[in-house]
């Protein structure tokens, strides 16, 4: 069963990150487990479940939350989900970057977790230019695949500038991202120079190692031990950062899958690894964003 599960996750990751063809996904899953019904159950266990989105409460009395537009330049806006401790004063700001499904309830929940740890948080919808993230995650993935990554990187860098001037903020801005969002964290670290105070990437595919010299912010990089696709880019990226004398800490969590932090995916979530990575993440963000 473990071999079947591992192969199923590989097939699903190919669907989400490569071919995006659900007919191919279903055909390969049926070949693995023998029937359409069993394949659908397996797919549902690997995919994120909106019903399991909230670990924190949207109306938590310790927080102030809102969702709406924010300006990143003259005549330019993005939609974002904001969460902050009540009466937050002199707090660092953390940009929370979604996966390739766009801004979902799960990512909003992660933003609240960040806020409960003492930061102001904003989770931008980087599909804002295409009308916003749709409820259908397959449509969202198609939209992400067609998005202009150079333009989105510019929007993220502009968000750093906008958030540094937030009321109650201390001017320091960090960024955390997951999967597609982890890849964007690396891109933003290359593009933002000294504007970024800290970056945390969870299993994010890395840029060309030749770009490591442009990174100024300290980075914390989390990798899944069974995630060969991302490791193929992550290993040379970490090596290049270290060779360039950059402040980088990288952890690989043995025996866990890509997306191990996503507690809405029953088959991939790994609580011990997720808890440890989160503890390290919050300590890292406090180290670089407090004061």
TrEMBL record:
<keyword id="KW-0472">Membrane</keyword>
<keyword id="KW-1133">Transmembrane helix</keyword>
<dbReference type="InterPro" id="IPR002925">
    <property type="entry name" value="Dienelactn_hydro"/>
</dbReference>
<dbReference type="InterPro" id="IPR051049">
    <property type="entry name" value="Dienelactone_hydrolase-like"/>
</dbReference>
<dbReference type="InterPro" id="IPR029058">
    <property type="entry name" value="AB_hydrolase_fold"/>
</dbReference>
<dbReference type="GO" id="GO:0016787">
    <property type="term" value="F:hydrolase activity"/>
</dbReference>
<keyword id="KW-0812">Transmembrane</keyword>
<feature type="domain" description="Dienelactone hydrolase">
    <location>
        <begin position="79"/>
        <end position="288"/>
    </location>
</feature>
<protein>
    <submittedName>
        <fullName>Dienelactone hydrolase family protein</fullName>
        <ecNumber>3.1.-.-</ecNumber>
    </submittedName>
</protein>
<dbReference type="Pfam" id="PF01738">
    <property type="entry name" value="DLH"/>
</dbReference>
<keyword id="KW-0378">Hydrolase</keyword>
<feature type="transmembrane region" description="Helical">
    <location>
        <begin position="29"/>
        <end position="48"/>
    </location>
</feature>
């Amino acid at each position: 069963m473990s071999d079947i599960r591992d192969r199923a996750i590989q097939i699903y990751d190919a669907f989400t990150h490569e071919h995006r063809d659900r007919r191919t996904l279903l055909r390969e899953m049926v070949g693995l487990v023998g029937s359409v019904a069993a394949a659908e159950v397996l797919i549902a266990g690997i995919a994120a479940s909106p019903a399991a989105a909230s670990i924190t409460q949207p109306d938590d009395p310790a927080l102030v939350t809102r969702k709406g537009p924010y300006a990143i330049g003259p005549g330019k806006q993005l939609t974002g989900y904001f969460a902050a401790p009540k009466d937050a004063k002199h707090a660092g700001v953390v940009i929370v970057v979604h996966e390739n499904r766009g801004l979902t309830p799960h990512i909003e929940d992660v933003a609240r977790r960040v806020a409960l740890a003492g930061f102001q948080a904003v989770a931008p919808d980087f599909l804002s230019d295409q009308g916003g993230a749709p409820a259908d995650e397959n449509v969202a993935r198609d939209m992400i695949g067609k998005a202009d990554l150079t333009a989105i990187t510019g929007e993220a860098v502009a968000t750093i500038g906008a958030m540094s001037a937030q009321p109650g903020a201390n001017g320091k801005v960090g960024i955390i991202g997951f999967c597609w969002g982890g890849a964007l964290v690396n891109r933003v670290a290359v593009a933002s120079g000294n504007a970024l105070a800290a970056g945390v990437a969870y299993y994010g595919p890395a840029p060309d190692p030749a770009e490591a010299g442009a990174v100024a912010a300290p980075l914390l990089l989390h990798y899944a031990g069974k995630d060969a696709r991302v490791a193929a880019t992550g290993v040379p990226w970490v090596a290049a950062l270290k060779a360039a004398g950059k402040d980088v800490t990288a952890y690989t969590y043995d025996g866990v899958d890509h997306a191990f932090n996503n507690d809405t995916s029953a088959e991939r979530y790994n609580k011990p690894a997720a808890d440890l990575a989160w503890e390290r993440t919050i300590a890292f963000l406090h180290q670089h964003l407090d004061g």
